[in-house]
Write a structure and sequence with these properties.
Elements (H helix, E strand, L loop, with lengths): L3 E6 L7 H4 L1 H11 L4 E6 L5 H8 L5 E6 L1 H11 L5 E6 L5 H5 L6 H11 L2 E9 L2 E3 L2 E5 H11 L6 H14 L5 E6 L2 E7 L2 E5 L21 E6 L4 H12 L9 E6 L1 E14 L2 E21 L4
Helix pairs in contact: 3-4, 7-8
The protein binds adenosine-5'-triphosphate.
Length: 297
């Protein structure tokens, strides 16, 4: 029996580009799906993709059409099931697709892979019991993302990012971090950010932990320690090209389970989606947590 494939399309992804492509997308999917049972569902609101993924029948493929936020919501609906994740990356960042090698396929190639390519498992992360696919960022980058929500609506793209970045820099006051790996304290001190990664990149290709491998049964962790405002501005260009890894205020760890504890609630994001700020994040890897169509392993 051929599998049932549900495409979950987020019209808001890619800054609304997906919504503008809806008809073309549906045509393409139905053209390529001959012989398969396929349905296309358009999300109506944030969180809807998780419900749709949960409701899909056992052993089906559920394909996230959008960016990392859409993938994140579908992952949340699939974890612990025998369903397979597909990804048609049309977001702004697409770091999950980059992690599993699907970002270079182009639209038709990605639809084809979602429909018919064999599936291989990847690790997932779990933070305070909630799954994530590619990234967990705690601290500075999440604060910038949060600030962007308050930015004036006329600011878009890079101006919006710079507004948010300098807004957070102006108020910069580093929390005190204690990082435990398997119950051992491995780092303590002021911290700009902590990234607990399954993927090497976040934020649309920023190689925060270039050595991360999503099939090694471990999370790769970067801790940025005490940074001044000027220090942050100095490290950013190096971060974009992966030249930050030898910076003396950066530390890297790899492992299965971490406890991230702060002296106050600190903002965080999973796969680029903000989660409620907390002073404690319990994080672990879920080895081979989800099968992904078109992932070569
Ligand atoms: N119908 C909808 N209307 C508005 N927002 C929606 C709808 N459906 C889903 N969303 C939200 O859209 C947001 C953005 O989606 P997504 O992250 O996939 O796109 P993106 O931001 O372009 O990509 P990336 O995260 O890769 O940069 C998500 O937070 C999701 O919850």
């Amino acid at each position: 029996m051929s599998p049932y494939v549900l495409f979950v399309v987020n019209p808001a992804a890619g800054r609304g580009r997906v919504g503008q492509m809806l008809e073309r997308l549906e045509r393409l999917i139905h053209q390529q799906a001959s012989g398969l049972k396929v349905e296309v569902a358009v999300t109506q609101r944030p969180g809807h993709a998780t419900e749709l993924a949960q409701q899909a029948p056992p052993q089906s493929r559920v394909v996230a059409v959008g960016g990392d936020g859409t993938v994140h919501e579908v992952v949340r609906g699939l974890v612990g099931s025998d369903k397979v994740l597909g990804v048609v990356p049309i977001g702004s960042g697409n770091d999950f697709a980059r992690m599993v090698g699907l970002h270079r396929l182009g639209l038709e190639g990605a639809v084809e892979a979602a429909l018919r390519a064999p599936a291989q498992p990847v690790d997932l992360g779990l933070v305070n019991q909630q799954p994530y696919g590619a990234s967990l960022g705690i601290g500075f980058d999440a604060a910038v993302a949060r600030k962007a929500l308050e930015a004036p609506t006329f600011l878009r793209g890079m101006p919006r990012y710079l507004y948010s970045l300098f807004g957070v820099l102006r108020e910069l006051e580093l929390p005190h971090l204690e990082l435990y790996q398997d119950d051992h304290l491995v780092y303590q001190g002021p911290s700009l950010l902590v990234a607990l990664m399954n993927a090497p990149t976040y934020g649309g290709g920023i190689p925060i932990v270039p050595q991360a491998v999503p099939t090694d049964g471990r999370l790769s962790v970067a801790v940025a320690g005490r940074f001044s405002r000027l220090g942050v501005v100095g490290i950013l260009p190096r971060l974009l090209t992966g030249r930050h890894v030898h910076h003396p205020r950066l530390r890297f760890f790899q492992g299965e389970a971490f406890l991230v504890r702060f002296d106050r609630p600190v903002p965080a994001h999973t796969d680029g989606e903000l989660i409620p700020p907390s002073s404690e994040y319990r994080v672990r890897v879920l080895p081979k947590g989800l099968a992904v169509a078109g992932f070569a392993g």
